[in-house]
Each structure stands twice: as structure tokens, then as C-alpha cells.
Amino acid sequence: MKVIEMRETGGPAVLELTERPRPELTTPTEILVRLVAAGINPVDTKIRARGPLLPDGLPAVLGCDGSGVVEAVGAEVTRFKVGDEVWFCHGGLGGPVGNYADYICLDNQFAQAKPRGISFVEAAAAPLVLLTAWEALADRAGLLPDQTVLIHAGAGGVGHVAIQLARAAGARVCTTVSSPEKADFAHALGAEYCINYREENLLEAVMDWTGGRGVDIALDTVGPACFRASIPAMAAYGNLVTILDPGPDLDLKEARNRNLRISLELMLTPQLRDLPRARAHQGEILRRCGKMIDTGELRIHVSQTFPLAQVQEAHRLIEDGHVTGKLALTIA
């Protein structure tokens, strides 16, 4: 089968198209999936540049997200049959199991039935960002109806689904964007107020929107400077969640004075630490998101696709920044 392999860390050029034997079922609970599409996420570029997240992870096949068609099932698999369409977040953290490939084997419990209302490309682009946004807002921040939510980079991969999930929960949403076009995109997803961070002061804009109270929840999808800037824009007893390392030498005096709850969100932890209950919870999240997709409450925006052989170009585009929505690889 064709596969994109990295044998060393570095720039996009370390991603090489090569051939590997097709994987075979090794346990009675596994399924073999012929991949139709794979999601591309910023974490892929970080693993490529810095190294696998799993020990002894080179050579590695990247790609955490995939969608495709079941080609074979183990003797104990009852959830799926040959020909079923599935989506999942599994692999891509180091070693030979990843979705930049023609095929992948995984335990059937880690896959879910693909939503009927979207394409394979949209399905492949969705799991990691959906799980991240849901865990950040619902699990970490305890999102409630009528709360005010600030979502940074609302036109990005996590941001554009976080807007929709917050609105579906009955919250009011403001978001940061970098252009009028991205503001239009975020408004169409349900954002009530868009802040062009290149032209507006974040704190002043948030306080104007909330009548001086600050937001109940802020989701940082950008990094340390964004995390720090969010603290004074929070309401007392608010929840500030970041999906990135907030950086060293944090001054949390103002956060303490506001009695903020600060949370870190990494949806890869259940894979990295082998946490079955947490992975089962993520499966339930995907099932619920799938229902929202099929009822029209939630949509996945893929701005550009690339054939498997052009994965280097896709990585360069992500590292340039400011991708709207998601990117994906078309495999079959």
C-alpha cells in the first residue's frame, strides 16, 4: 500500500511517499479500514518537526484522523461489517499506525459509524477538532445555556466547530478573527460578535460586548500571548481553557483575583496514556456530534484538499497559518 512515512524530524521534505505491506488483523476485535480521506492537523506538523509523541516512534506514519470503508473484521466484531463507512481519531502519534496511508487497522471500539450527511473528506477532517472543542467547552469549562463565550481564532479548525457547539448549547459567542472575510465566515456559523484582533483591542471589545462584565468562558486555541490577554477579559469565577502550553513565567495574580478556573485540554491524552474509559467517552462525543451533523446543527468546513502525494504542500500551508476551517488528504 502507499503510505507517507517520516524517518527523521525536520521540515515537510522529511515526509516521503513509499510502499509498505498492507496491515493485517492481529486481534479478533480489530477492523481493517480502506482509507478514503485523512485529516491534517497542526499537531501533525509539530510531530514532524519535533518528533513522535510515543517512544521509539520512528519511522512514523502521521495522521490522527481518518475515514473510510471497512474491508475486514475480526471474529469478535459485531458493531461493523464489511462495507460499513466509519470515521475515527486513532494513530498518528508515532510508529507505523497513522492515517496518511491507504489502509489502517484499529480496534473496532475506536471507530464510529460515519455521519450520513457529510462526505468522507469532511468526516476525516472532523474528529480531532470536534473532540477538542467538546472536551474544552463541555468537560473542562462546564458550558451552560446563556453563558458568554470567547473563542479565539473562530475561523480555524477547532474554532469553527467550537462556535457551533457553543451556540447549540444555547450560549452567546464572540470570537477573534484576522479579516472581514473570516468575520463573515464566523458570523455564518453563529458567532454574535467578531473581533478583528489586527484592528481592535481585545479587552475593550469584550467589555463592550458584555457590558463590562467579561466572558464566562474563554477558549484559547492560539498560544501564550492569547492566553494572557484573555485573563482580564474574563468574568469573575469564569473558566479559561487553553489547548496549548500557556508558556513559562505565568503571572496569575489577576486570574486569582477573579477566581478563575484554568484548564488544559489535550484530547490526545487517552491515546498517549491508554485510558479506556476516556476513549469510550470520546466515542460517545463523536456519536453525539454525528447526530448533530445529520440534523444540520453542525457542519465541517474543509477549505482545501490534497492528494496523498502532496502532503508536503499541505504541511507548508498549515505552518504558514491562517487556514480557514480544515485541510484534508484524499486517499482513494
Structure description:
The protein is of the alpha/beta class and 332 residues long. It has eleven helices and 15 strands. The chain has helices at residues 42-50, 120-125, 127-140, 157-168, 180-189, 202-209, 224-230, 253-257, 269-272, 276-294, 311-320, and strands at residues 2-6, 15-19, 30-40, 65-73, 85-89, 103-107, 111-113, 148-151, 172-177, 193-196, 215-220, 234-242, 261-264, 302-307, 326-330. α3 (127-140) packs across α4 (157-168) and α3 (127-140) crosses α10. The longest helix is centred in the C-terminal third of the chain and has 19 residues, at 276-294. The protein is globular. The N and C termini lie close together (12 Å).
Low-confidence runs: none
Mean pLDDT: 98
* Dominant shape: globular
Distance between the termini: 12 Å
Helix percentage range:
25-40%
Nearest-angstrom radius of gyration? 20 Å
Order of helices and strands: EEEHEEEEHHEHEHEHEHEHEHHEHE
Q: Find the structural class using helix and strand composition.
A: alpha/beta
Q: What amount of the residues lies in strands?
A: 25-35%
Count of individual beta strands: 15
Largest sheet: 7 strands, mixed
Question: Could you list some keywords that capture this structure?
Answer:
single chain, 332 residues, alpha/beta, seven-stranded mixed sheet, 26% strand
